[in-house]
Design a protein that fits this description.
The structure holds 2 protein chains of 2 kinds. By secondary structure, chain A is α+β, with helices and mostly antiparallel strands. Chain A is built from 8 helices and 13 strands. Chain A has a single domain, classed as Aminohydrolase, N-terminal nucleophile (Ntn) domain (Glutamine Phosphoribosylpyrophosphate, subunit 1, domain 1, 4-Layer Sandwich). In chain A, strands 1, 4, 5, 6, 7, 8, 9 and 10 form an 8-stranded antiparallel sheet that branches. In chain A, strands 11-2-3-12-13 form a 5-stranded antiparallel sheet, with helices on one face. In chain B, a hairpin with a 7-residue loop joins strand 9 and strand 10. Classes of the chains: A alpha+beta, B alpha+beta. Chains A and B meet through helix 1 and helix 3 of A and strand 3, helix 2 and helix 3 of B.
Chain lengths: 279, 236
């Protein structure tokens, strides 16, 4: 710890790391490691066999989604990470609490994605502590956009990270969803959104079942169903695992703050869904 | 060319000490008390923009008094150092013992620098225990970089000794939050009316700043007590 110069004082943690510990940011904002990016890292036209192995063994996060309901916003993700055609990890977490009123979910290559989520959480908290008041919800969203942008060199090599950011806007008194593309473009969704390998399937379910002013109870049901459909259609997405007791991560944010839906409740929601699908 | 005046090291250090002490003598006090669920920090501070108590890390808070730009720079350095360390290694590797040593080195180095003004600060670095098998830590740092550990209750600021004297008679273990806050408020009232012979002095939510490190909270143990919460406890 060094006493920093007064003109080095900043509430931007990214700036602190860039100045003091740039090696910790080597993933973000470094030039491409390879001369020619592989055209399609899932399969054909790989430059060398070792590179194919490398890409096939990277963990990839699969389906994440978010939906606004009448009192706030809900954010969820399945628990599987996939490496090529293998289950890479059954219990990975893709939804993280950022602060008392916001959360981030990540899809894409798991390593850099989880690192980005961790860095983003520190970034938001650092600002709050230095300034004595939290960033605005849009301020947080913009700061995440910058992080995704700085991942561009990695994205060009197929190492894409795509987050969803959600939070309760205390000024507007509503839940809000921000989605990002691979190069940091930021767009707001007013109702629901899903991304990742099973995102399209989850999105279809949400589209069919969503209604504006949906209740908390209602939105929980359709989120669970959307994740079920994603796991049903997309081989990479994990469904509820009743044998190992692994269930999707679901977090709810409203005017009282963020809270986790406990596994027991998620399990009950799935049991109910399965009964409905069965009959 | 005239020869430079010789000033003995003893005299230089004595002058620095006098200078720093003079600064701290004017400083408003901060009381830190251990209570049932954690650590309570209370400062006499009518300002709502300049804080004497702040969150450093998950289980660590800083209570400071003296010259604002001096302790604000230390607060900033503490938060930055803690976050960088926690990001590099792990959040649990950031401890108050480590941070107290960092502060000690920084403050000590500035104190010894020949052409620098000593920092006019007194700090209490508080860390709430991880679980029931460990203890709360309160590190008391002085303007010259020396530090020691306090427990149960402690005070920094100009009239620290007088206030500690009052607390010695009044403090008891296992106070709840309202008990601890009322004790701090009573102590401030006593010192203002009896020692300084002000006619009548009443502590209200507007005259103090208070925060806790509360064991029952999640990862971030620090919580500032809002004016409404303060009023409710103080008027009870």
């Amino acid at each position: 710890m060094v006493f920093s110069r007064a003109d080095h004082r900043t509430s931007d943690f990214l700036e602190v790391l860039q100045r003091e510990r740039p090696e910790l940011l080597s993933r973000f904002g470094t030039p491409p490691l390879l001369d020619s990016p592989p055209a399609n890292w899932k399969g054909q036209r790989m430059p060398t066999s070792s590179l194919t192995d490398l890409y096939d063994n990277l963990l990839e996060g699969t389906t994440i989604l978010a939906a606004v309901y009448n009192e706030g916003v809900i954010i969820a993700g399945d628990r599987q990470a996939t490496a090529g055609f293998q289950v890479g990890e059954r219990r990975i977490r893709k939804v993280y609490e950022v602060d008392a009123y916001s959360a981030i979910a990540i899809a894409g290559v798991a390593g850099p994605a989880m690192e980005m989520a961790k860095l983003f959480q520190v970034q938001v908290e650092f600002y709050e502590k230095i300034e004595g008041s939290p960033l605005s919800l849009e301020g947080k969203a913009n700061s995440l956009s910058n992080m995704v942008k700085s991942n561009l060199p990695m994205a060009l090599q197929g190492l894409v990270v795509v987050p969803i950011f959600t939070g309760y806007d205390l000024k507007r008194k509503q839940g809000r969803i921000f989605k990002y593309d691979a190069i940091g473009g930021q767009y707001e969704e007013s109702e629901y959104y899903a991304t990742g390998s099973g995102g399209k399937d989850a999105q279809t379910t949400l589209k069919k079942l969503y209604s504006p002013d949906i209740s908390r109870e209602g939105v929980l049901k359709i989120v669970v169903e959307a994740l079920w459909d994603a796991a049903d259609e997309d081989v990479a997405t994990g469904g509820p695992d009743f044998i190992r007791e692994i269930f999707p991560t679901i977090k709810v944010i409203d005017s009282t703050g963020i809270s986790d839906i406990p596994d027991s409740e998620t399990k009950a929601l799935y049991t109910e869904l399965l009964e409905r699908l069965h009959s | 060319m005239p020869a430079p005046y010789y000033v003995s090291p003893e005299q230089i250090m004595q002058e620095k000490e006098d200078f720093a002490r003079k600064g701290i003598e004017k400083a408003k006090e901060v009381i830190v008390l251990e209570y049932r669920d954690g650590i309570l920090m209370v400062a006499e501070n009518p300002l709502t923009t300049v804080f004497k108590i702040s969150e450093i890390y998950d289980r660590i808070a800083l209570a400071a008094t003296g010259l604002y730009p001096d302790y604000e720079a230390l607060r900033y350095a503490g938060i930055q150092g803690a976050e960088v360390k926690g990001f590099t290694f792990n959040r649990e590797d950031v401890t108050a013992r480590w941070l107290a040593n960092q502060y000690s080195q920084q403050i000590g180095a500035i104190y010894r620098q020949p052409d620098a003004k000593p920092l006019e600060v007194e700090l209490l670095l508080c860390e709430i225990r991880e679980d029931s098998s460990s203890n709360n830590r309160i590190y008391h740092l002085s303007f010259d970089g020396t530090f020691w550990e306090d427990n149960e209750y402690t005070v920094i600021g100009g009239r620290a000794d007088e206030i500690a004297g009052i607390l010695e008679a009044e403090y008891s273990e296992g106070l709840d939050l309202s008990g601890a806050l009322q004790l701090a408020a009573r102590t401030f009232e006593t010192i203002e009316t009896e020692v300084d012979e002000v006619d009548r002095y009443q502590v209200t939510a507007e005259t103090i700043e208070a925060a806790v490190l509360d064991e029952t909270r999640n990862r971030r143990k620090f919580k500032r007590l809002l004016p409404d919460e303060l009023s409710e406890i103080l008027s009870a």
